[in-house]
Each structure stands twice: as structure tokens, then as C-alpha cells.
Amino acid sequence: MAPDFPGFGQSDAPPPSSYAYTFDNLAKTTSALLEQLKINKYMFFLHDYGGPVGFRIVSAHPERLQALIIQNANAYQEGLGAKWAGIAQYWADPKAHPEVFDAFVSLAATEQRHTLGTSHPERYNPDAWTDEYAHLSKPGQREIQASLLYDYRTNVASYPAWQAWLRRYKPPTLLVWGRNDPSFIAPGAEAFKRDLPDAEIHLLDAGHFALDEKNDEIASLILAFLAKHSV
What we know:
Distance between the termini: 16 Å
Structural class: alpha/beta
Shape: globular
Number of helices: 11
Helix content: 40-55%
Order of helices and strands: HEHEHHHHHHEHHEH
Oligomer: single chain
Largest sheet: 4 strands, parallel
Strand order of the largest sheet: 1-2-3-4
Number of strands: 4
């Protein structure tokens, strides 16, 4: 199951006046969906925004998690690439730095989220970023995405708590990480070893969306991981 969060994909996108776009709320909504579907045991594949949503859910219900697969979903300061210094200025004073958000949702940045760091740009379908940009250009999306980018500061503040959770519960964990990702850089993957010494870590020659060019390799690693842990 791969549900879209509110405001994304095929899910409803209520205006921020009726739905608060925070990572706490995305986690509550996703948890409510799992409850409604009566799913009380799960393995999470966490990527990008799915990381902070997933960490909130498993922190509330550690007994339900069977394993973690993490692909460029950051939980350590070491994993924040250079662009986050500019975003930190936006967190400190959004009104003083509108250029940070404008750059974040620009067509150039949308394409680079997919292609920057890849050794094989020809393997990427341009529809990936043109469709994403079309979605970001829909009415109301600027407000939604601005709210989430601003709220992302709460994720960085939660890193120590999530790390403590990993140390305590030590779930079976596989990391398959695009090592050339300029946003969530490779040291962020390696940092998981501090709290999960038994984690299996693979740094792949890929960018942020490693599945777009390493899908066979990642699938093989996942199947081997599941077989090893009998999940």
C-alpha cells in the first residue's frame, strides 16, 4: 500500500484553512487510514517526506513495526546537504526570505530533485518532473507546500528523539541510499550505524530518486533483506 498524503497525488487537498499541513497532521491522517483498514502490523518503506511521517507513526506504535526500509529519508544532521542552510533562513523568518520557497517550487528545482546526482539522466522520464511541477502549479498548492516546508523544521528538531527510539527498539533496517543525493547526503545514511549497528546499508550510484534508475538492484536487496529477517 502506498497512500498519497493529503495535498499530494490523488488525495484530497483541502485548503490550509480547514486542514493544517504539518507533519504531525500527515502522520495522524496516515495512522487513521491504517486503523480504518485494520492494519496493525507493517513494514515501512520511508523516502523523503515519508521519513518524518513514518518516524512519528512508529514512535507512537513501536509494537506494530516489523522492519524499516529507508531510502534517502533523513534523520541525522549529517544528512542535510548544503541547500538546507538557505531553508534554515526561511524557517527563521519566512516573510523575509520568500525567494527560498520560490526556488523550492520552481521548475528548475523540481527537475533537479529528480536528475541532480544521477549518472544516468537518460533513464529518467521527463514526465516525472513536468507532472510534479504541474501539480505544484495547481491552485492552493503554494500555500500547502509553503506550510510543509516551514514545518519541516520540526523534523530536524525531532532527530534526537527518533535516534533514541532507534537505539531503544533496534528494528531490522535496510538502507538503500542514492549516495549522490545533494539534498540528503550520504553521511546521513552512514549515521544510522550509530544507533542501528546491525543495519544493512547500501550506498548506490544514484540521486535522490534512486528507484528511478536502480529499481532492479533495490528490489533484489529488499527481497534478500525480507528473506533474511523472515518478515
